Amino acid sequence: MTQLVQPDLPVVDTPLVEILVAELGDVLAFRTDAGGFTTDWNPGVERILGYGRAEWVGQRVHLIFTPGDRAAKKPERDMAKAAREGRALTAGPYQRGDGSLLFVEGAVVALKDSHGTLLGFYNVMRDLAERNEAEAARRQSEETYRNLFNGLDQGFCIVEVKTETGEPLDYRVIEVNPAFEKQSPQGNAEGRWIRERYPQHEERWFEIYRDVALTGEPIRFQERSKELETLWFDVYAFRIGPPQQKHVGVIFTNITERKHSEQALRDSVERVEQVLAQAPVAIVVFRGPEFVIELANPSYQALVQGRELVGRRFAEVVPEIGADVWAAFHHVMDTGEAVVREEFYVPYDHDGDGIVEDHWFNLVYHPLRESDGTVSGLVTVCIEVTAHIRARQDLELVNRGLEEFAHVASHDLQEPLRMVRCYTQLLVESSDDEATQVVTEERRLFAGFIENGVVRMETLIRDLLAYSRTVHSLDLDVCNASLETALSHALSAVEARAAETAAVITHEPLPVVRGDEAQLSHVFQNLLSNALKYCTPGQQPQVHISAELQAEEWIVSVRDNGIGFESKHAARIFGLFKRLHRDDEYPGTGLGLAICKRIIERYGGRIWADSEPLAGATFRFSLAAGRQ
Amino acid sequence: MRPRLQILLGEDNLGDVLLVRRALNEHRVEYELHTMRDGSEAALFMEGVQEGGGLPCPDLFLLDLNLPKLDGCELLVLLRAHPLCGDKPVIIISSSGAESDRRRATNAGATQYYQKPSDLKEFMKLGALVREVVKAEPQ
Q: Which residues lie closer than 8 Å to B78 by C-beta, 6 or more apart?
């Protein structure tokens, strides 16, 4: 048991009071001297106020008053009233040693001696436990609220709305949280009426806050403000406090960036859609194992005129589609590999007349993957090449016909010539048996003319055929061709003539080019034949072949030391039947160089010649370098 | 005396018939020529080739590729299926030098392909070819 400490002052109160004060642990009881300095202490002081005896005795009673009460001189007033009237009732929050508030009620009783002299005061107070719990809860809630308020990443403010009739609708911010400035970089407009500060602020803002303040119905909205650099906000507004205060709590997030990225996304989607819409290729997106059409661009829609596409299964849209397409679809779905097809034959009913037509497509089936890598569908990009294939088939047909015609024509044209020639020879031979020698000589001369004509005609037919073949041959084989090989074939073809003229034909290493060896051999053969034919009389023919790489093409030169020609004829000699000499000077059909030109141009090259009379000629042609 | 070589010549051009005779003469081939002016005439002749009372099969066939009605190659196919003449040597003659024509003749079963030259001396070499082909045949 704790003893009430006996003060140094003379004591006149009753022992019963002493005991009660000492025993009542939940009662706060202490004594002060007349000046308000504490003189003793009961256990309640320590339990309730948190002051130990040593901390307590000798302190002014002001210690336990709130700063407000102290400023209001409540301790002095209480004591004065007790001194005057014997006691003063007191209630309200007091401050504990840790600064927290304590709600108590009690009395200050004056302690006087028998002469009525004031000795001090008794202070007796009861802890209002319920009241204090409520206060603790309120403090807890306020603290939570503060934490929330301060810690909230969203901007928060309380606005006060002005809706007085006769005055313009307005509002102002009266409190903000720390995140406010982050979310609203224009800064804190705290305290100022918005209309004054932001004259251009949209009317809608005012109306929304007015409605919330008046109706108490919370609202969530997204709005932007020109005044705030056209920022976008996501706002939740709710009434806060009593209705007459017209306070609105506003929680908001600056969503400008989100809005911008949403816009960018929308723009980009729009662009993609535009591209899809304008694309000359047909594009269709399928989803899921049922191949449901998710998207089809106009080019694709045109392929399947008048059929409903989006949201329907492919099997249901184009039931006539063949097994090859399904096989490709399943390959893409099963393996995740793209399938690329050229001139893929896809028969289906394009015009909806119930009859399946032939169609060909160049296409790619590409897998569509989810973020986890699984294939969830495929996109088909295709372009119809049916017209192209048909044109080629027609052309092939025409060309086959032409080839046939050329072949028959050559045969049928040669046939009568053969008869003319053989029987002319027979005529001459049979005349030898007769005795009329003079007539025979004349016959022989005439027969010679006939035979020359026939040979010339035969050559012409042969060259024309060769020319027509270079024109019509469709099996244009553009691949790597070794000019070394082409030249060696040509050299064997002109071997006899070269030996006859004792010509010297030399060449440097020759490259591989884009073309066809047989055709290019023909070019060399024509150029070499010309070089050997148009040689300078009395001079050994010399021909040199070389090649030089310029940019990505080879320039091949065939240089001779023959009679040459005037440079003004350099272009003319490549024309059909164009000749610079009489047939009795140098025989020929005028087709050799035309054939060369035709072949070289077919492989994307050029052919030309330089020469001066008696200074030899150089023929050059260009061809793309061969590929590795 | 050796029996003369029985030759069936399918040729519509009289000029060529004379040249063929001349070439055979020049190379001293002892022959008897049965000239057929078109393919169906030749086919009809072949129908008459039978055992026991029918015509005997010729020893050699010279067929122009471009015979009217049935051409040389069509005739050759019939010939190769003939029970008596299936093994006889056949020379397809033509003024065409086209590779496709040569191939066609070879595929149909020709023994030789001879391109008619426009030079008389060259044409005469047909006689030598005939001798060669006949000599190579087992008698």
A: B43, B46, B70
